[in-house]
Amino acid sequence: MNKKKVKKTLKYGLSTIGIVLLALIFLGYSNIGNLSTDETQENHYLKIGNERIRFLQKGNGKDILLIHGTPGSIEDWSEIIDTLSESYRVTVFDRLGHGLSSANDYTYHIKDNAILAEKLIKQLDLESPLVVGHSYGGSIVAHMAVNSKLKNLDYIIIDSPLYSFPTENIYKLVSIPWLGRGFAFLASFTIAKNKIRKDFSAYIRSTPQQKVNEFLAIRQKIWSQPKVIYSKSLESVNYTDDLNKISPHYKNIDDKITIITGKEASGTFKNDCERFHKEVAGSKLITVENTAHLIPLEQPSVVIEIIKETIR
Question: Could you tell me the CATH number of the domain that includes residue 133?
Protein backbone atom coordinates (compact mmCIF):
# COMPACT_ATOMS: atom_id res chain seq x y z
CA MET A 1 0.00 0.00 0.00
CA ASN A 2 1.52 3.34 -1.06
CA LYS A 3 1.72 6.42 1.13
CA LYS A 4 -1.22 8.06 -0.63
CA LYS A 5 -3.50 5.16 0.18
CA VAL A 6 -2.25 5.03 3.79
CA LYS A 7 -3.00 8.74 4.26
CA LYS A 8 -6.42 8.32 2.70
CA THR A 9 -7.26 5.33 4.91
CA LEU A 10 -6.00 7.16 7.99
CA LYS A 11 -8.01 10.24 7.09
CA TYR A 12 -11.21 8.24 6.64
CA GLY A 13 -10.53 6.31 9.85
CA LEU A 14 -10.04 9.46 11.90
CA SER A 15 -13.08 11.07 10.32
CA THR A 16 -15.20 8.03 11.19
CA ILE A 17 -13.96 8.05 14.79
CA GLY A 18 -14.70 11.78 15.01
CA ILE A 19 -18.23 11.31 13.69
CA VAL A 20 -18.87 8.44 16.11
CA LEU A 21 -17.61 10.50 19.07
CA LEU A 22 -19.71 13.51 18.05
CA ALA A 23 -22.74 11.25 17.71
CA LEU A 24 -22.08 9.81 21.18
CA ILE A 25 -21.80 13.29 22.67
CA PHE A 26 -25.06 14.33 21.00
CA LEU A 27 -26.89 11.20 22.16
CA GLY A 28 -25.44 11.56 25.65
CA TYR A 29 -26.89 15.04 26.01
CA SER A 30 -30.25 13.99 24.57
CA ASN A 31 -33.03 12.48 26.66
CA ILE A 32 -33.08 9.25 24.64
CA GLY A 33 -33.14 6.18 26.89
CA ASN A 34 -34.45 8.02 29.96
CA LEU A 35 -37.91 7.25 31.34
CA SER A 36 -40.85 9.62 31.02
CA THR A 37 -41.13 12.17 33.81
CA ASP A 38 -44.76 13.11 33.20
CA GLU A 39 -46.97 13.75 36.22
CA THR A 40 -49.21 10.71 36.72
CA GLN A 41 -51.40 9.22 39.41
CA GLU A 42 -48.33 7.40 40.77
CA ASN A 43 -45.61 9.98 40.05
CA HIS A 44 -45.77 13.37 41.74
CA TYR A 45 -43.16 16.11 41.54
CA LEU A 46 -42.09 19.22 43.38
CA LYS A 47 -39.78 22.01 42.27
CA ILE A 48 -36.70 22.87 44.31
CA GLY A 49 -34.67 25.58 42.62
CA ASN A 50 -34.02 24.47 39.06
CA GLU A 51 -34.72 20.82 39.83
CA ARG A 52 -37.85 18.70 39.46
CA ILE A 53 -37.98 16.02 42.16
CA ARG A 54 -40.20 12.94 42.15
CA PHE A 55 -41.52 12.25 45.64
CA LEU A 56 -44.05 10.17 47.52
CA GLN A 57 -45.64 11.05 50.84
CA LYS A 58 -47.88 8.62 52.67
CA GLY A 59 -49.48 8.35 56.11
CA ASN A 60 -49.85 10.62 59.13
CA GLY A 61 -47.93 11.14 62.34
CA LYS A 62 -44.25 11.49 63.11
CA ASP A 63 -42.28 12.45 60.00
CA ILE A 64 -39.79 10.00 58.48
CA LEU A 65 -37.60 10.93 55.51
CA LEU A 66 -36.01 8.05 53.55
CA ILE A 67 -32.93 8.65 51.35
CA HIS A 68 -31.84 5.98 48.85
CA GLY A 69 -28.36 5.01 47.64
CA THR A 70 -26.51 5.14 44.32
CA PRO A 71 -28.02 4.08 42.06
CA GLY A 72 -31.49 4.07 43.57
CA SER A 73 -35.01 5.45 43.62
CA ILE A 74 -38.23 5.57 45.62
CA GLU A 75 -38.76 1.89 44.80
CA ASP A 76 -35.81 0.90 47.01
CA TRP A 77 -38.05 1.51 50.04
CA SER A 78 -41.03 -0.43 48.64
CA GLU A 79 -40.84 -3.15 51.29
CA ILE A 80 -41.22 -0.76 54.24
CA ILE A 81 -43.26 2.27 53.06
CA ASP A 82 -46.75 0.80 53.46
CA THR A 83 -46.17 -0.63 56.92
CA LEU A 84 -44.47 2.51 58.25
CA SER A 85 -47.19 4.75 56.81
CA GLU A 86 -49.77 3.03 59.01
CA SER A 87 -48.25 4.86 62.00
CA TYR A 88 -46.12 7.68 60.57
CA ARG A 89 -45.94 10.18 57.71
CA VAL A 90 -43.34 8.73 55.35
CA THR A 91 -41.63 10.85 52.69
CA VAL A 92 -39.42 9.32 49.99
CA PHE A 93 -37.92 10.90 46.89
CA ASP A 94 -35.65 10.25 43.94
CA ARG A 95 -32.31 11.97 44.46
CA LEU A 96 -30.94 14.25 41.76
CA GLY A 97 -30.12 12.34 38.58
CA HIS A 98 -31.80 9.16 39.85
CA GLY A 99 -35.20 7.60 39.25
CA LEU A 100 -37.35 10.23 37.60
CA SER A 101 -35.75 13.33 39.12
CA SER A 102 -33.77 15.93 37.17
CA ALA A 103 -30.09 16.87 37.50
CA ASN A 104 -29.93 20.32 35.93
CA ASP A 105 -27.55 21.94 38.41
CA TYR A 106 -26.21 18.83 40.13
CA THR A 107 -22.44 18.61 40.70
CA TYR A 108 -22.62 15.02 42.03
CA HIS A 109 -21.38 15.52 45.58
CA ILE A 110 -22.71 14.38 48.96
CA LYS A 111 -23.01 18.02 50.00
CA ASP A 112 -25.46 18.70 47.14
CA ASN A 113 -27.68 15.91 48.41
CA ALA A 114 -27.57 17.09 52.01
CA ILE A 115 -28.60 20.59 50.93
CA LEU A 116 -31.43 19.16 48.81
CA ALA A 117 -32.67 17.02 51.73
CA GLU A 118 -32.81 20.07 53.98
CA LYS A 119 -34.67 22.11 51.35
CA LEU A 120 -37.12 19.24 50.93
CA ILE A 121 -37.67 19.09 54.70
CA LYS A 122 -38.51 22.79 54.73
CA GLN A 123 -40.65 22.79 51.58
CA LEU A 124 -42.76 19.83 52.71
CA ASP A 125 -42.98 21.14 56.30
CA LEU A 126 -41.54 17.98 57.80
CA GLU A 127 -41.49 18.45 61.54
CA SER A 128 -38.29 17.20 63.24
CA PRO A 129 -38.13 14.14 60.96
CA LEU A 130 -36.26 10.94 61.55
CA VAL A 131 -33.87 10.89 58.56
CA VAL A 132 -33.00 7.40 57.33
CA GLY A 133 -30.36 6.82 54.68
CA HIS A 134 -29.21 3.63 53.01
CA SER A 135 -25.76 3.25 51.39
CA TYR A 136 -24.96 6.59 49.66
CA GLY A 137 -28.06 7.89 51.43
CA GLY A 138 -26.42 7.02 54.76
CA SER A 139 -23.34 8.99 53.74
CA ILE A 140 -25.70 11.93 53.17
CA VAL A 141 -27.12 11.39 56.64
CA ALA A 142 -23.59 11.48 58.10
CA HIS A 143 -22.97 14.79 56.30
CA MET A 144 -26.23 16.18 57.73
CA ALA A 145 -25.32 15.03 61.23
CA VAL A 146 -22.04 16.94 60.94
CA ASN A 147 -23.25 20.09 59.19
CA SER A 148 -27.02 20.56 59.36
CA LYS A 149 -28.37 23.72 60.99
CA LEU A 150 -31.80 22.10 61.34
CA LYS A 151 -32.73 21.28 64.92
CA ASN A 152 -34.24 18.15 66.52
CA LEU A 153 -33.31 15.70 63.78
CA ASP A 154 -32.67 12.05 64.55
CA TYR A 155 -30.76 9.82 62.14
CA ILE A 156 -30.44 6.21 61.02
CA ILE A 157 -27.61 5.06 58.74
CA ILE A 158 -28.12 1.71 57.00
CA ASP A 159 -24.90 0.00 55.87
CA SER A 160 -23.06 2.93 54.30
CA PRO A 161 -19.54 3.78 53.14
CA LEU A 162 -18.43 6.38 55.69
CA TYR A 163 -14.67 6.68 55.12
CA SER A 164 -13.86 5.55 51.57
CA PHE A 165 -15.39 3.93 48.51
CA PRO A 166 -13.57 1.96 45.80
CA THR A 167 -14.33 3.32 42.33
CA GLU A 168 -14.48 0.88 39.41
CA ASN A 169 -12.78 1.85 36.17
CA ILE A 170 -16.06 1.79 34.26
CA TYR A 171 -17.32 4.68 36.39
CA LYS A 172 -14.10 6.60 35.86
CA LEU A 173 -14.61 6.21 32.10
CA VAL A 174 -18.20 7.46 32.25
CA SER A 175 -17.11 10.46 34.34
CA ILE A 176 -14.87 11.83 31.54
CA PRO A 177 -16.03 15.36 30.61
CA TRP A 178 -18.20 15.62 27.48
CA LEU A 179 -17.66 12.03 26.36
CA GLY A 180 -18.85 10.55 29.65
CA ARG A 181 -22.52 11.14 28.92
CA GLY A 182 -22.04 9.44 25.57
CA PHE A 183 -20.45 6.43 27.23
CA ALA A 184 -23.37 6.35 29.67
CA PHE A 185 -25.77 6.30 26.71
CA LEU A 186 -23.80 3.46 25.10
CA ALA A 187 -23.70 1.48 28.36
CA SER A 188 -27.44 1.92 28.81
CA PHE A 189 -28.13 -0.14 25.70
CA THR A 190 -25.30 -2.67 26.06
CA ILE A 191 -23.74 -3.67 29.38
CA ALA A 192 -25.91 -1.88 31.96
CA LYS A 193 -28.51 -4.54 32.73
CA ASN A 194 -25.95 -7.32 33.16
CA LYS A 195 -23.84 -5.03 35.35
CA ILE A 196 -26.87 -4.21 37.50
CA ARG A 197 -27.71 -7.91 37.88
CA LYS A 198 -24.15 -8.76 38.91
CA ASP A 199 -23.84 -5.92 41.44
CA PHE A 200 -27.33 -6.42 42.86
CA SER A 201 -26.78 -10.15 43.35
CA ALA A 202 -23.52 -9.48 45.21
CA TYR A 203 -25.43 -7.47 47.83
CA ILE A 204 -28.16 -10.07 48.48
CA ARG A 205 -27.69 -12.99 50.87
CA SER A 206 -30.93 -14.73 51.90
CA THR A 207 -33.67 -13.53 49.54
CA PRO A 208 -35.31 -16.26 47.39
CA GLN A 209 -34.34 -16.08 43.71
CA GLN A 210 -37.88 -15.38 42.55
CA LYS A 211 -38.02 -12.30 44.78
CA VAL A 212 -34.55 -11.25 43.63
CA ASN A 213 -35.76 -11.44 40.02
CA GLU A 214 -38.77 -9.26 40.88
CA PHE A 215 -36.51 -6.66 42.51
CA LEU A 216 -34.14 -6.78 39.54
CA ALA A 217 -36.83 -6.31 36.90
CA ILE A 218 -37.77 -2.95 38.42
CA ARG A 219 -34.22 -1.80 39.04
CA GLN A 220 -32.83 -2.79 35.66
CA LYS A 221 -35.49 -0.58 34.08
CA ILE A 222 -34.79 2.43 36.32
CA TRP A 223 -31.04 2.12 36.93
CA SER A 224 -30.11 1.51 33.28
CA GLN A 225 -31.21 5.00 32.21
CA PRO A 226 -28.25 6.98 30.76
CA LYS A 227 -28.78 9.82 33.26
CA VAL A 228 -28.68 7.36 36.18
CA ILE A 229 -25.51 5.67 34.90
CA TYR A 230 -23.90 9.09 34.57
CA SER A 231 -25.04 10.19 38.04
CA LYS A 232 -23.85 6.94 39.63
CA SER A 233 -20.47 7.32 37.92
CA LEU A 234 -19.83 10.91 39.00
CA GLU A 235 -20.99 10.20 42.55
CA SER A 236 -18.67 7.19 42.71
CA VAL A 237 -15.66 9.15 41.44
CA ASN A 238 -16.30 11.94 43.98
CA TYR A 239 -17.24 9.60 46.83
CA THR A 240 -13.97 9.11 48.70
CA ASP A 241 -12.96 12.77 48.49
CA ASP A 242 -16.38 13.77 49.82
CA LEU A 243 -16.03 11.33 52.72
CA ASN A 244 -12.51 12.56 53.46
CA LYS A 245 -13.93 16.05 53.96
CA ILE A 246 -16.57 15.05 56.49
CA SER A 247 -15.12 12.02 58.31
CA PRO A 248 -12.67 14.03 60.48
CA HIS A 249 -15.73 15.75 61.98
CA TYR A 250 -17.67 12.64 62.97
CA LYS A 251 -16.35 12.87 66.51
CA ASN A 252 -18.25 16.15 66.90
CA ILE A 253 -21.67 14.61 66.20
CA ASP A 254 -23.97 14.90 69.21
CA ASP A 255 -27.30 14.05 67.56
CA LYS A 256 -29.11 10.80 68.19
CA ILE A 257 -27.87 8.39 65.52
CA THR A 258 -28.35 4.65 64.93
CA ILE A 259 -26.21 2.57 62.57
CA ILE A 260 -27.49 -0.67 61.01
CA THR A 261 -25.24 -3.15 59.22
CA GLY A 262 -24.95 -6.86 58.54
CA LYS A 263 -23.45 -9.45 60.88
CA GLU A 264 -20.86 -10.37 58.27
CA ALA A 265 -18.35 -8.02 56.62
CA SER A 266 -18.70 -9.79 53.25
CA GLY A 267 -21.13 -7.92 51.01
CA THR A 268 -21.59 -5.09 53.51
CA PHE A 269 -19.87 -1.93 54.76
CA LYS A 270 -19.70 -3.31 58.28
CA ASN A 271 -16.12 -2.16 58.91
CA ASP A 272 -16.98 1.48 58.15
CA CYS A 273 -20.12 1.27 60.28
CA GLU A 274 -18.22 -0.15 63.26
CA ARG A 275 -15.50 2.49 62.96
CA PHE A 276 -18.13 5.25 62.79
CA HIS A 277 -19.84 3.84 65.88
CA LYS A 278 -16.57 3.97 67.82
CA GLU A 279 -15.99 7.59 66.84
CA VAL A 280 -19.50 8.90 67.49
CA ALA A 281 -20.22 9.04 71.19
CA GLY A 282 -23.76 8.02 72.03
CA SER A 283 -24.37 6.29 68.71
CA LYS A 284 -26.03 2.89 68.61
CA LEU A 285 -24.85 0.02 66.38
CA ILE A 286 -27.23 -2.78 65.38
CA THR A 287 -26.07 -5.79 63.35
CA VAL A 288 -28.60 -7.82 61.39
CA GLU A 289 -28.35 -11.51 60.52
CA ASN A 290 -29.02 -13.15 57.13
CA THR A 291 -28.47 -10.05 55.06
CA ALA A 292 -25.91 -8.32 52.91
CA HIS A 293 -25.91 -4.68 51.85
CA LEU A 294 -29.53 -4.40 50.67
CA ILE A 295 -30.99 -4.58 54.17
CA PRO A 296 -34.21 -2.57 53.53
CA LEU A 297 -35.15 -5.07 50.81
CA GLU A 298 -33.84 -8.22 52.46
CA GLN A 299 -34.83 -7.63 56.08
CA PRO A 300 -37.62 -5.01 55.93
CA SER A 301 -39.37 -6.12 59.13
CA VAL A 302 -36.13 -5.66 61.08
CA VAL A 303 -35.62 -2.16 59.65
CA ILE A 304 -39.23 -1.24 60.43
CA GLU A 305 -38.87 -2.38 64.04
CA ILE A 306 -35.62 -0.44 64.49
CA ILE A 307 -37.27 2.70 63.08
CA LYS A 308 -40.23 2.29 65.43
CA GLU A 309 -37.93 1.70 68.40
CA THR A 310 -35.85 4.77 67.49
CA ILE A 311 -39.00 6.91 67.43
CA ARG A 312 -40.27 5.47 70.70
Answer: 3.40.50.1820
How many whole angstroms separate alpha carbon 94 and alpha carbon 43? 11
7 shares its domain with 128: no
Q: Does any domain span residue 14?
A: yes
Let me know: does 72 contact 95? Beta carbons within 8 Å: yes
Answer whether residue 211 is part of any domain. Answer: yes
The count of domains in the chain is 2
Cα 3 to Cα 226: distance, rounded to the nearest angstrom: 42
Q: Is the pLDDT of residue 1 over 60?
A: no
How many CB atoms are closer than 10 A to CB 52?
A: 18
Of the given ranges (14-28, 111-125, 181-195), which has the lowest mean pLDDT? 14-28
Is the pTM higher than 0.90? The answer reads yes
CA distance 177 to 186: 15
- The conformation of residue 265, written as its DSSP 8-state character, comes to S
- Domain limits for position 7: 1-32
pLDDT tens digits, residue range 60-79?
A: 999 999 999 999 999 999 99
Cβ-contact 65, 153 below 8 angstroms? no
With respect to residue 37, please indicate whether it lies within any of the assigned structural domains.
no
CA distance 266 to 115: 32
